């Protein structure tokens, strides 16, 4: 009477590989060995013959004792339980399991696409990944930049298929990579661009500057805005300075949503003292900041107009200067600035 000589070992393989399940039978005599796929109730082989029409299934044996079921070019649908049966009365059988590992894949839906949001809103990025084993999802910024997750808190990555950003700001803007891995190569990723819109802001380091006639002077102003802003300088009477000439040299250094504005006065003249404004505007509004240039007497003139100092010992004259930033928000003419 035939009997099984060993249990069927479970097999784990990857998609595209070949899986081989072995069934050992002692004293088979004239009986036959049958392989079945239990999940689909399909008879695959009988003795040395392949019954199924699936061309990826094969059968070999070793001295009619060990019967090998071959599954070539394994697919995810091949996963499941396989039975080795001896056609005794009643039949004898045992089962083994085929586990199919599938490399990760990122689904187009419901995975997030590129997003455009207003600063201060809440944002949810999603990454839907499939595979076997279930993939692990990691979020990173393109270029290995850190991710702001709180006041003064930055992390290199965020784990999980859902990435929530509370009150998104301009520091969050950029490209994010959703990376899915499960130990089965290759890992996959999807790039999601997060764009944050916000109105202009302006920062000026020196708002009150002393200069002598004939001196070369550079005014500086820093602005931030997105979408990209229009930036220019004006004088106190509204004169717009947009192009370099004999007197002025305006320069804009653009770095993403930041603009470093410089205005160089080649040689300060009597008419150059007064107020200057750096103006920044985009679709969401305007902002400007003021810089005042005041006259400083030359050393020669100071010596000519000098008066004797007090003879009282320890006397000192102290000046205190208060710097005030004046910021004006102007309602823009949107049709003129951004024609249809």
Automatic annotation (TrEMBL):
It comes from the Eukaryota. Gene3D superfamilies: Immunoglobulins. Keywords: Cell membrane, Disulfide bond, Glycoprotein, Immunoglobulin domain, Membrane, Repeat, Signal. InterPro entries: Ig-like_dom, Ig-like_dom_sf, Ig-like_fold, Ig_I-set, Ig_sub, Ig_sub2, Neural/epithelial_adhesion. One of its GO terms (cellular component) is neuron projection. It is found in: Cell membrane. Pfam families: I-set, Ig_3. Residues 2-96, 104-195, 200-297 form the Ig-like domain. PROSITE patterns: IG_LIKE (PS50835). This is Ig-like domain-containing protein.
């Amino acid at each position: 009477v035939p009997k099984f000589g060993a249990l069927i070992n479970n097999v784990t393989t990857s998609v595209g590989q070949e899986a081989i399940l072995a069934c050992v039978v002692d004293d088979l005599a004239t009986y036959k060995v049958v392989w079945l796929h239990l999940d689909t109730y399909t008879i695959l082989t009988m003795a040395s013959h392949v019954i199924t029409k699936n061309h990826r299934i094969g059968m070999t044996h070793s001295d009619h004792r060990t019967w090998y079921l071959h599954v070539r070019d394994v697919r995810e649908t091949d996963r499941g339980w396989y039975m080795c049966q001896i056609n005794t009365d009643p039949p004898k059988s045992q089962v083994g399991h085929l586990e199919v590992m599938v490399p990760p894949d990122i689904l187009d839906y419901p995975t997030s696409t590129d997003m455009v949001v207003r600063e201060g809103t809440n944002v949810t990025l999603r990454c839907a990944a499939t595979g076997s084993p279930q993939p692990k999802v990691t979020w990173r910024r393109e270029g290995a930049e850190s991710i702001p997750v709180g006041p003064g808190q930055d992390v290199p990555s965020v784990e999980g298929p859902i990435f929530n950003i509370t009150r998104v700001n301009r520091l969050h803007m950029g490209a994010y990579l959703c990376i899915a891995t499960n130990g089965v190569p290759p890992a996959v990723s999807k790039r999601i661009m997060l764009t944050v819109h916000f109105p202009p802001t302006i920062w000026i380091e020196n708002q009150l500057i002393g200069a002598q006639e004939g001196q070369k002077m550079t005014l500086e102003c820093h602005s931030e805005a997105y979408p990209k802003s229009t930036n220019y300088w004006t004088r106190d009477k509204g004169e717009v300075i947009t192009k370099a000439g004999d007197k002025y040299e305006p320069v804009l250094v653009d770095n993403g949503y930041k603009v470093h504005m410089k205005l160089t006065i080649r040689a300060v003249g009597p008419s150059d003292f007064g107020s200057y404004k750096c103006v920044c505007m985009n679709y969401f509004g305007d902002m400007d900041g003021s810089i005042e240039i005041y006259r400083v007497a030359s050393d020669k003139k100071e010596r000519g107009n000098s008066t004797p100092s007090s003879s009282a010992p320890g006397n000192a004259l102290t000046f205190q200067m208060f710097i005030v930033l004046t910021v004006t928000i102007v309602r823009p003419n949107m049709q003129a600035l951004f024609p249809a």
